[in-house]
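Milestone M4 deliverable, item 7.
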Amino acid sequence: MVAKRIIPCLDVKDGRTVKGVNFVGLKDVGDAVELGCRYALEGADELVYLDISATCEGRKTFTSLVERIAQNINIPFTVGGGISTMDDAARLLDAGADKISINSAAVANPDIIDQIAAKYGSQFLVLAIDAKQVDGIWRITTHGGNKLTDKELISWAYEGQERGAGEILFTSMDHDGTKNGYPCETYAALADKLSIPIIASGGAGSVDDIVKVLTEGKADAALAASIFHYGEVSIAELKKELQKRDIKVRL
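Output delivered:
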Protein backbone atom coordinates (compact mmCIF):
# COMPACT_ATOMS: atom_id res chain seq x y z
CA MET A 1 0.00 0.00 0.00
CA VAL A 2 1.30 3.44 -0.93
CA ALA A 3 1.66 5.77 2.05
CA LYS A 4 -0.93 8.53 2.37
CA ARG A 5 0.48 12.05 2.28
CA ILE A 6 -0.12 15.01 4.58
CA ILE A 7 0.27 18.34 2.77
CA PRO A 8 0.01 21.74 4.44
CA CYS A 9 -1.25 24.43 2.07
CA LEU A 10 0.08 27.98 2.23
CA ASP A 11 -1.93 30.64 0.42
CA VAL A 12 0.49 33.47 -0.37
CA LYS A 13 -0.31 37.15 -0.83
CA ASP A 14 2.57 39.60 -1.22
CA GLY A 15 5.02 37.08 0.24
CA ARG A 16 2.96 36.37 3.37
CA THR A 17 0.84 33.34 4.22
CA VAL A 18 -2.88 34.14 4.59
CA LYS A 19 -6.03 32.15 5.35
CA GLY A 20 -9.72 32.83 4.87
CA VAL A 21 -13.08 31.03 4.91
CA ASN A 22 -14.81 30.12 1.63
CA PHE A 23 -12.03 32.06 -0.14
CA VAL A 24 -12.77 35.40 1.60
CA GLY A 25 -11.87 37.23 4.85
CA LEU A 26 -8.12 36.70 4.55
CA LYS A 27 -5.93 36.93 7.67
CA ASP A 28 -2.14 37.02 7.86
CA VAL A 29 -0.77 33.87 9.51
CA GLY A 30 2.97 34.22 9.01
CA ASP A 31 6.04 34.22 6.80
CA ALA A 32 5.72 31.75 3.95
CA VAL A 33 9.27 30.39 4.15
CA GLU A 34 9.37 30.16 7.96
CA LEU A 35 6.06 28.31 8.07
CA GLY A 36 7.20 25.94 5.32
CA CYS A 37 10.40 25.16 7.23
CA ARG A 38 8.40 24.44 10.37
CA TYR A 39 6.06 22.07 8.55
CA ALA A 40 8.98 20.26 6.93
CA LEU A 41 10.56 19.72 10.36
CA GLU A 42 7.22 18.50 11.76
CA GLY A 43 7.05 15.77 9.11
CA ALA A 44 4.97 17.15 6.24
CA ASP A 45 5.33 15.01 3.12
CA GLU A 46 4.96 17.92 0.72
CA LEU A 47 3.90 21.56 0.69
CA VAL A 48 1.61 23.50 -1.63
CA TYR A 49 2.12 27.23 -2.14
CA LEU A 50 -0.63 29.11 -3.95
CA ASP A 51 -0.08 32.68 -5.12
CA ILE A 52 -3.56 34.11 -4.62
CA SER A 53 -2.65 37.63 -5.75
CA ALA A 54 -1.10 36.67 -9.06
CA THR A 55 -0.78 40.15 -10.53
CA CYS A 56 2.23 41.00 -12.72
CA GLU A 57 4.00 42.46 -9.70
CA GLY A 58 2.94 39.56 -7.52
CA ARG A 59 4.22 37.08 -10.07
CA LYS A 60 7.77 38.50 -9.82
CA THR A 61 7.52 38.54 -6.03
CA PHE A 62 6.33 34.93 -6.07
CA THR A 63 9.18 33.73 -8.31
CA SER A 64 11.77 35.14 -5.90
CA LEU A 65 9.84 33.59 -3.02
CA VAL A 66 9.95 30.18 -4.75
CA GLU A 67 13.73 30.52 -4.98
CA ARG A 68 13.89 31.19 -1.23
CA ILE A 69 11.64 28.23 -0.49
CA ALA A 70 13.82 25.93 -2.60
CA GLN A 71 16.93 27.10 -0.77
CA ASN A 72 15.43 26.46 2.68
CA ILE A 73 13.11 23.48 2.39
CA ASN A 74 14.13 19.87 1.77
CA ILE A 75 10.75 18.31 0.93
CA PRO A 76 8.86 18.50 -2.40
CA PHE A 77 6.69 21.53 -2.95
CA THR A 78 4.10 22.52 -5.53
CA VAL A 79 3.41 26.09 -6.59
CA GLY A 80 0.34 27.50 -8.29
CA GLY A 81 -1.60 30.65 -8.96
CA GLY A 82 -1.66 32.66 -12.17
CA ILE A 83 0.22 30.06 -14.24
CA SER A 84 -1.18 30.43 -17.75
CA THR A 85 1.70 29.85 -20.17
CA MET A 86 4.62 27.52 -20.74
CA ASP A 87 6.90 30.40 -19.77
CA ASP A 88 5.16 30.72 -16.38
CA ALA A 89 5.63 26.98 -15.77
CA ALA A 90 9.27 27.07 -16.86
CA ARG A 91 10.08 30.06 -14.66
CA LEU A 92 8.71 28.46 -11.50
CA LEU A 93 10.24 25.05 -12.16
CA ASP A 94 13.57 26.75 -12.89
CA ALA A 95 13.21 28.67 -9.60
CA GLY A 96 13.15 25.34 -7.76
CA ALA A 97 9.52 24.19 -7.57
CA ASP A 98 9.06 20.41 -7.75
CA LYS A 99 5.61 20.63 -9.32
CA ILE A 100 3.32 23.29 -10.68
CA SER A 101 -0.42 23.54 -10.25
CA ILE A 102 -2.70 25.00 -12.91
CA ASN A 103 -6.36 25.90 -12.54
CA SER A 104 -8.10 28.79 -14.33
CA ALA A 105 -5.76 28.70 -17.33
CA ALA A 106 -6.49 25.01 -17.89
CA VAL A 107 -10.24 25.66 -17.93
CA ALA A 108 -9.76 28.47 -20.44
CA ASN A 109 -7.30 26.51 -22.57
CA PRO A 110 -7.24 22.76 -21.80
CA ASP A 111 -4.42 22.24 -24.32
CA ILE A 112 -2.03 23.82 -21.79
CA ILE A 113 -2.30 20.56 -19.79
CA ASP A 114 -1.12 18.51 -22.79
CA GLN A 115 1.66 20.98 -23.55
CA ILE A 116 3.13 21.12 -20.03
CA ALA A 117 2.82 17.35 -19.58
CA ALA A 118 4.51 16.73 -22.94
CA LYS A 119 7.44 19.01 -22.12
CA TYR A 120 8.02 18.28 -18.42
CA GLY A 121 6.15 15.04 -17.71
CA SER A 122 2.90 14.36 -15.87
CA GLN A 123 4.73 14.03 -12.54
CA PHE A 124 5.40 17.79 -12.59
CA LEU A 125 1.78 18.80 -13.24
CA VAL A 126 -1.08 19.07 -10.75
CA LEU A 127 -4.53 20.05 -12.04
CA ALA A 128 -6.16 22.13 -9.30
CA ILE A 129 -9.95 22.28 -9.33
CA ASP A 130 -12.10 24.65 -7.26
CA ALA A 131 -15.75 23.62 -7.32
CA LYS A 132 -19.00 24.24 -5.49
CA GLN A 133 -22.41 22.65 -5.56
CA VAL A 134 -25.04 24.41 -7.64
CA ASP A 135 -28.45 22.69 -7.75
CA GLY A 136 -26.81 19.45 -6.65
CA ILE A 137 -24.08 19.53 -9.31
CA TRP A 138 -20.41 20.19 -8.57
CA ARG A 139 -19.63 23.12 -10.86
CA ILE A 140 -16.08 24.30 -11.61
CA THR A 141 -15.13 27.86 -10.74
CA THR A 142 -12.13 29.91 -11.86
CA HIS A 143 -10.33 33.12 -10.86
CA GLY A 144 -10.13 32.26 -7.17
CA GLY A 145 -13.71 31.04 -7.06
CA ASN A 146 -15.14 34.22 -8.54
CA LYS A 147 -16.31 32.88 -11.91
CA LEU A 148 -18.72 29.98 -12.29
CA THR A 149 -18.30 27.78 -15.37
CA ASP A 150 -20.48 25.13 -16.99
CA LYS A 151 -17.89 22.40 -16.39
CA GLU A 152 -18.71 19.55 -14.01
CA LEU A 153 -16.20 18.21 -11.50
CA ILE A 154 -15.79 14.53 -12.36
CA SER A 155 -15.87 14.95 -16.14
CA TRP A 156 -13.33 17.80 -15.97
CA ALA A 157 -11.03 15.87 -13.63
CA TYR A 158 -11.17 12.89 -15.99
CA GLU A 159 -10.39 15.09 -18.99
CA GLY A 160 -7.43 16.54 -17.09
CA GLN A 161 -6.13 13.07 -16.35
CA GLU A 162 -6.46 12.00 -19.99
CA ARG A 163 -4.64 15.15 -21.14
CA GLY A 164 -1.67 14.39 -18.91
CA ALA A 165 -2.18 15.81 -15.41
CA GLY A 166 -0.30 13.73 -12.85
CA GLU A 167 -2.54 14.55 -9.87
CA ILE A 168 -5.86 16.21 -9.12
CA LEU A 169 -6.10 18.74 -6.29
CA PHE A 170 -9.81 19.26 -5.67
CA THR A 171 -10.89 22.01 -3.27
CA SER A 172 -14.50 22.17 -2.19
CA MET A 173 -15.36 25.86 -1.98
CA ASP A 174 -18.37 24.95 0.15
CA HIS A 175 -16.09 23.43 2.78
CA ASP A 176 -12.98 25.62 2.49
CA GLY A 177 -11.89 27.00 5.87
CA THR A 178 -15.09 25.85 7.61
CA LYS A 179 -13.36 22.98 9.48
CA ASN A 180 -16.57 20.95 9.07
CA GLY A 181 -14.99 18.01 7.24
CA TYR A 182 -14.45 17.08 3.61
CA PRO A 183 -17.19 15.95 1.16
CA CYS A 184 -16.01 12.33 1.33
CA GLU A 185 -18.64 10.85 -1.02
CA THR A 186 -17.46 13.18 -3.76
CA TYR A 187 -13.83 12.27 -3.26
CA ALA A 188 -14.74 8.57 -3.35
CA ALA A 189 -16.61 9.11 -6.63
CA LEU A 190 -13.55 10.85 -8.07
CA ALA A 191 -11.27 8.03 -6.91
CA ASP A 192 -13.53 5.44 -8.54
CA LYS A 193 -13.33 7.31 -11.86
CA LEU A 194 -9.65 8.27 -11.93
CA SER A 195 -6.38 6.35 -11.91
CA ILE A 196 -4.13 9.26 -10.81
CA PRO A 197 -3.68 10.44 -7.20
CA ILE A 198 -6.28 12.75 -5.67
CA ILE A 199 -5.41 15.42 -3.10
CA ALA A 200 -8.35 16.41 -0.88
CA SER A 201 -8.64 20.08 0.08
CA GLY A 202 -11.21 22.12 1.95
CA GLY A 203 -12.78 21.39 5.32
CA ALA A 204 -10.17 19.79 7.59
CA GLY A 205 -11.08 20.58 11.18
CA SER A 206 -9.86 17.54 13.09
CA VAL A 207 -7.90 14.31 12.92
CA ASP A 208 -11.19 12.47 12.35
CA ASP A 209 -11.90 14.58 9.25
CA ILE A 210 -8.55 13.61 7.76
CA VAL A 211 -9.02 9.94 8.68
CA LYS A 212 -12.39 9.97 6.92
CA VAL A 213 -11.20 11.52 3.67
CA LEU A 214 -8.23 9.15 3.47
CA THR A 215 -10.43 6.09 4.09
CA GLU A 216 -14.08 6.68 3.14
CA GLY A 217 -13.07 9.38 0.67
CA LYS A 218 -10.31 7.21 -0.85
CA ALA A 219 -8.06 10.28 -1.21
CA ASP A 220 -4.33 9.72 -1.68
CA ALA A 221 -3.37 12.86 0.25
CA ALA A 222 -5.01 15.33 2.62
CA LEU A 223 -4.26 19.00 2.22
CA ALA A 224 -5.04 21.30 5.13
CA ALA A 225 -4.28 24.83 6.24
CA SER A 226 -6.20 26.24 9.20
CA ILE A 227 -5.59 23.37 11.64
CA PHE A 228 -1.84 23.58 11.02
CA HIS A 229 -1.53 27.38 10.81
CA TYR A 230 -3.38 27.88 14.10
CA GLY A 231 -1.60 25.02 15.91
CA GLU A 232 -4.74 22.96 16.50
CA VAL A 233 -2.89 19.76 15.64
CA SER A 234 0.74 19.16 14.73
CA ILE A 235 1.67 17.09 11.71
CA ALA A 236 3.64 14.68 13.91
CA GLU A 237 0.63 14.12 16.20
CA LEU A 238 -1.65 13.68 13.21
CA LYS A 239 0.59 11.08 11.61
CA LYS A 240 0.93 9.08 14.82
CA GLU A 241 -2.85 9.01 15.13
CA LEU A 242 -3.26 7.95 11.50
CA GLN A 243 -0.80 5.13 12.05
CA LYS A 244 -2.75 4.00 15.13
CA ARG A 245 -5.81 3.74 12.89
CA ASP A 246 -3.96 1.54 10.38
CA ILE A 247 -3.47 4.26 7.79
CA LYS A 248 -0.01 3.96 6.26
CA VAL A 249 1.98 7.20 6.52
CA ARG A 250 5.68 8.12 6.50
CA LEU A 251 6.83 8.92 10.03
